[in-house]
Amino acid sequence: MSKRFTAGAVAAAASLALTVTGLGVPAAAAPSSTRTFTVLAESGVSNDAAIAAITAAGGKVVSRTDDVGLFQVTSDRADFASRATAAGALLGAAEEKAIGSKPKLDRVEQEHLLAAVASKGKAAKGKAKKMDPLDDKLWGLDMIRADKARTIEPGDRRVTVGVLDTGVDASQPDLAPNFNWALSRNFAPDLVDVDGPCEVASCLDPVGTDDGGHGTHVAGTIGAAANGFGLSGVAPKVSLVELKGGQDSGYFFLNPVVNALVYAGRSGLDVVNMSFYVDPWLYNCTANPADSPEAQAEQRTIIEAMKRALTFAHRKGVTLVGALGNNHEDLGNPRTDVSSPDYGSDPYPRPIDNASCWDLPTEGPHVIGVSAVGPSGKKADFSNYGTEQISVAAPGGWFRDGFGTDTYRADANMILSTYPKKVLQEEGSVDEDGNIVAGFENSVFKQCTAKGECGYYTYLQGTSMASPHAAGVAALIVSRYGKQQGRNGFGMSPDLVEQHLYRTAAEHACPEPRLQTYTNEGRDAEFNAYCAGSLNFNGFYGYGIVDAYAAVKTPLKPNARP
Questions:
Q1: 1 CB contacts (<8 Å, ≥6 apart)?
Q2: Which residues have a Cβ under 8 Å from the Cβ of 241 and sit 6 or more positions away?
Q3: To the nearest 5 percent, what fractions of the chain are helix, strand and coil?
Q4: Cα angle at 542 between 540 and 544, to 5 degrees?
Q5: What's the whole-model pTM score?
Q6: Rounded to an integer, what distance in angstroms lies between the CA atom of residue 160 and that of residue 174?
């Protein structure tokens, strides 16, 4: 899950206009420097009425997403957020406030680079016949039998998979054949406070680039081409669509994410992968006593906006797949949140009430939540879990897997996938000439075509890496069982995709004893995890580990139970 430290859309069609009332703030409040907000209209309020309320509160609309009643607004009023929240036509406002850049390396996803001891390259390798040179390092493809699945269904070019992430490096030779330039979009302009200087004058990076790296890694797992070069993805012949909704620095803010989801629905995408949570709150709560009234209103705005966007995309035929998170906790019984807000002001302890707090998007409507397992099949120590939110499990990598063997603390226990050369150079593992730096031979790989086009690959771990395995299987299901829809469309009901994904997952029982401890792997008691549930469905594995081969081999049974 990327963090570099990772109801219905009714507003557009509503015709009821409400009078702006209850501002209750002195009109002469002192202005401050211009700030940017994401504002959401109340359900049932027309967009015109919402814009009128925004203007009355002292804001200027700079962009609008009519399908869900969302507006990006600038204002120089210090009290704009409170005025907007008090307006009857508006649900609330969420502000973008910078506090500095994220750490260079992610403490979970890049644990191998932060480890105090030297890591190793040896780990379990695949045994099946491979199509691409690096496929023997993709134990995840073997675990979900994607290598066998492609003999039946490698993916249909008409099936489009949106990578809602930090971007996609379309110059990567393994991604270029499957990259859909026509549909790809960037919804997240660079913010210099956290992303650094803009690379282009508009601050809107060109489509086909990725200055964060995370999205390119996700894209490779979903659909790297099986072309005799580099490595291959779960669904090596589907179309990859860049939906850049994340900043280069790894933040994912409300306005770009909602716009990306609405666009996915409008454009008829089949699957969207979401390996992130919406900043700045790890959990968005309706009325957490630890939060200020303004922070409460901001979180209510995020909750409602995400619900509308996810529901809109689902109704338009998008299968939504999300990472369960890397906070090693039961999402049905969350710990006190000590990391939020992670942007705009310093974090503070926030006890989390499960009934009124949401980890978004994974706990949003219609989202298939995915936990992470290592090569052994054991739940990765970092992975979130819980019977309320989990749907399925998938290979997400686990650096510390294999305790007691020579594979313990091995880079190859993680997930290898495509990665931008530029980001590897910034991280120090590739030099300015494009060569792998000494000491990184076990974690970074380089492959070049006969024409001299080179692709780079590296290991990451996380539920961010598990989710694209499941998204790839979902894309294979649509490829196998989808039907022509309309004159130019092709697709499949997301409810049917979800049902078939669950029904064909490989059931996996809870460990015995059910209280899984990670003491041997060097973790303290906070990482202890209790697995509740049955063989058919439990908190570690949901309906099971996704199985690509079973998914394309098993006949579709509409309305069958998982």
A1: 275, 276, 277, 323, 324, 325, 326, 462, 463, 464
A2: 160, 161, 162, 163, 180, 183, 184, 264, 267, 269
A3: 25, 20, 55
A4: 100
A5: 0.92
A6: 17
How far apart CA 38 and CA 255 sit, in angstroms, is 6
Token digits for 404?
């007691």
The closest of 118, 108, 139 to 415, measured between CA atoms, is: 139
Confidence at 228, pLDDT banded by 50, 70, 90? very high
At residue 148, the 3 state secondary structure works out as helix
Residue pair 75/25 in contact (Cβ under 8 Å)? The answer is: no
Neighbours of 205 (CB within 10 A): 22
Peptide bond into 341 cis (omega under 30): yes
Q: How far apart are CA 151 and CA 515, in angstroms?
A: 39
Query: CA–CA separation, 249 vs 101, rounded Å?
Result: 7
Mean pLDDT, range 139-157, rounded to an integer: 97
Question: Which residues are registered as beta bridge partners of 372?
Answer: 394
**Phi and psi dihedrals of 466, rounded to 5?**
-75, -45
- Specify the pLDDT at position 112: 84
CB of 159 closer than 8 Å to CB of 239: yes
| Nearest alpha carbon to residue 547 among 219, 228, 142, 93 | 142
The two tokens of residue 377 are 């099949």
- Check: CB of residue 350 under 8 Å from CB of residue 370: no
Confirm if 100 and 78 have CB atoms less than 8 A apart.
no
Give the β-pairing of 160-165 and 239-244.
parallel
Residue 192 neighbours by CB distance under 10 Å? 12
Higher pLDDT, 113 or 79: 79
How confident is the model over 450-490, as pLDDT tens digits? Answer: 889 999 999 999 999 999 999 999 999 999 999 988 767 89
Q: First and final CA of the chain: distance in angstroms?
A: 26
Element (H, E) at 417: strand 415-419
Tokens of 439: 């000491």
DSSP string, 243-272: EE-S-TTS---HHHHHHHHHHHHHHT-SEE
pLDDT at 100: 47
User: What is the C-alpha radius of gyration for the chain, rounded to an integer number of angstroms?
Assistant: 23
The number of C-alpha atoms within 13 Å of 76 and in the hemisphere containing its C-beta is 6
Which helix H or strand E contains 458, and what residues bound it? strand 454-460
Mean pLDDT over each residue of the chain, to the nearest integer:
91
> What's the rounded Cα separation, in Å, for the pair 412 and 443?
8
- Any idea which of 54-58, 110-114, 318-322 has the lowest mean pLDDT? 110-114
Which tokens in the block code for residue 362?
Answer: 């994974």
How far apart, in whole angstroms, are the C-alpha atoms of residue 276 and residue 254? Answer: 12
Phi–psi pair at 226, nearest 5 degrees? -90, 85
